[in-house]
Model the fold of this input.
Amino acid sequence: ELKVEQNPLFLSMQEGKNYTIYCNYSTTSDRLYWYRQDPGKSLESLFVLLSNGAVKQEGRLMASLDTKARLSTLHITAAVHDLSATYFCAVDNVSNAGKSTFGDGTTLTVKP
Amino acid sequence: NAGVTQTPKFRVLKTGQSMTLLCAQDMNHEYMYWYRQDPGMGLRLIHYSVGEGTTAKGEVPDGYNVSRLKKQNFLLGLESAAPSQTSVYFCASSWDRLNSPLHFGNGTRLTVT
Done:
């Protein structure tokens, strides 16, 4: 059974600081996704990581994937208040109808 | 382009009542999914469909049924609601499972008293 663990689950940081969210998964996977959810809202896709060593960047967020370590990281650079949200990683296996297994989410609060 | 639309947005049921949640997508996606989200937890898959006329069980299917009679619609039914089914329900769809992320609806907040 595929398990996905995120840490930390809660993160409070000051504007301008850097931090990393970690996503570990338990079995071989074909791809990994990062999603963002604002309070009371739906989830939106941030990154799709398809292969070992993949790195994607969008603004102050950068995601990477190490399939050998079964680890993905979401790095936040010079945080701003607008990045406050809950971030989920999700792991797929195409042979399993591509069902995504989600981590429990990391709630990020960026304070001035 | 509406994307994924869920109805209703909110609903309060009494224990034992039934209801159907509707998910409609206009992106011609083959794959559709129903997830539930509970406080402090990630999303858990209830049922999914890999194409019109097909459905399959996910991680937490008990107490729910689904149907996909048309490609664009995926219905989630609760035959006899229980307080444990109080949750936020999200429908999602995707074009394929090779490179495509999930596209989510705005969710249905269901309370069972």
